[in-house]
Design brief:
86% helix, rod-shaped, mainly alpha
């Protein structure tokens, strides 16, 4: 095309009416450019659907890869954060346990100073009472005559003892039977 323009330009210089062939060459070039554009447009229209589908497929594949990488990063971040949260909560629980222990110790000391028995003291006393009850049961089952004697005394009224005698009788320790 450039050669045609150069040939026509040299030919137009030699001829007297030089403006006509140069304008014809320009018109021919413009016509060829126009036709090339129409051909490219037609080809793009014909193959445009195929190219568009190809681009959509490539975009979908890239989107899937990107989503997979993003999900992987999110899961890593989630694991890190949950690990940190677990660690923090365990430290906090440990601190609460220490605080609770200190509080319980101080309350126990205050109650002890006031003379309030602890749960352990009450359990010990309950065990001791149970043991004494078992011992009393054993003693009462061994001496059946001892049960009858107080009943006989209640049935027969005794003489009224002077008040001084009653006090001494109460103060004297009872004789224990050896088992």
């Amino acid at each position: 095309m450039v050669k045609k323009i150069q040939k026509s330009a040299t030919a137009s210089k030699s001829a007297a009416g030089a403006s006509s062939p140069l304008s014809g060459a320009i018109k021919d070039s413009a016509q060829q450019i126009w036709l090339a554009g129409l051909g490219a447009f037609s080809k793009a229209q014909a193959e445009g659907g195929k190219a568009f589908d190809t681009l959509v497929k490539e975009g979908l594949s890239i989107q899937r890869k990107t989503q997979a990488v993003a999900e992987e990063r999110i899961s890593e971040a989630t694991n890190r954060v949950s690990g940190m949260a677990t660690e923090i909560s365990s430290k906090a629980a440990g601190q609460w346990d220490k605080l609770e222990s200190i509080f319980e110790d101080r309350v126990a000391k205050a109650l002890n100073k006031l003379g309030v028995p602890s749960a352990r003291d009450i359990e010990t006393l309950m065990e001791r009472i149970d043991e004494l009850n078992r011992h009393v049961q054993r003693l009462s089952s061994k001496t059946p005559a001892a049960r009858k004697t107080p009943a006989a005394r209640k049935a027969a009224p005794a003489k009224a003892a002077p008040p001084a005698a009653r006090k001494t009788a109460v103060r004297k320790p009872a004789a224990r039977s050896k088992a």
